[in-house]
Amino acid sequence: MAIADKRLQRREIITKAVCGKGRKFSTITHTVTPPHHPTSILGAWIINHQYEAVKSGDGIEVIGSYDINIWYSYNKNSQTDVAKETISYVELVSLSYVDPKHRSSTEEVTADATQEPNCVEATIGSKGTSVIIRVEREFAVEMVAETKVCVVVDPSGTDDEGKDVGFGLGDDGDFEDLDSDLLEDDL
């Protein structure tokens, strides 16, 4: 069936589709000042990460927060404590692809933390009173909206109209020789 065939017709279908995508990796530095002057850093974690996505101009803002917990020693390594601080952030992720013909009134945005905020380095500041934390994080965002899709329609139909099409997966014994022990359980 040739596209140039005059019997073929074109239809426009309005559907929801991914109309914009973006990704952003970032490294951020935070300074936390514990109640005691730290002697050494024993551990640093990021917990309780929460975020949401909102449309903002030509991109998507990821608005969120997380808690930084720093386990440190003080008093010449004779005592330990945990310093806690909640960090709020706004990360603007540009859309590297945008369908220009989408209906902006139907936009829905989502964000996925492809790399949760993670402490990659914790050091004592130069004055010895604070801890400098380096955090990495990455987000992938999508914008779903209504858009038009063009399809070609053959008004004469197809030869298999009204027939049950089995796609060759019927009772022809193709699966009899499979070893069931080799199949994965989580499919």
From TrEMBL:
Entry superkingdom: Bacteria
Task: Provide an example Pfam family for this protein.
Answer: CotE
Q: Which UniProt keywords apply?
A: Capsid protein, Virion
Q: Where is this region: Disordered?
A: 161-187
> Which InterPro entries does the entry link to?
Spore_coat_CotE (IPR018901)
List, as start-end ranges, the regions of compositional bias called Acidic residues.
Answer: 171-187
Q: What is this protein called?
A: Outer spore coat protein CotE
